[in-house]
Amino acid sequence: xxxxxxxxxxxxxxxxxxxxxxxxxxxxxxxxxxxxxxxxxxxxxxxxxxxxxxxxxxxxxxxxxxxxxxxxxxxxxxxxxxxxxxxxxxxxxxxxxxxxxxxxxxxxxxxxxxxxxxx
Length: 119
Fold this sequence. Notes:
The longest helix has 100 residues, at 7-106. The protein is built from one helix and no strands. It has one helix at 7-106. The termini are far apart. By secondary structure, it is mainly alpha-helical.
């Protein structure tokens, strides 16, 4: 287009080009913002799901830990009982060994007072 000396037509054309450009920039920015918002929403939704799954896993692991700790305590109690019984049996074994040695040396059976074994 040839505007010649018609400055008003040139100004309107320049203004409409500038407004059109700015309008395209604004629309593009809005579209990009909408896409970014949708992506952000999907990412945050996925993160919330992952966090929920991890929280459930933590709860399950805590329950397992409590069960294992309870079992460990029960096993420690049972081990203590077994060790006590082992000490008693070792003491009785030593007493019997001494009694046998004394019998072999003297020919007389010594009086050994041992408790009956547990039932």
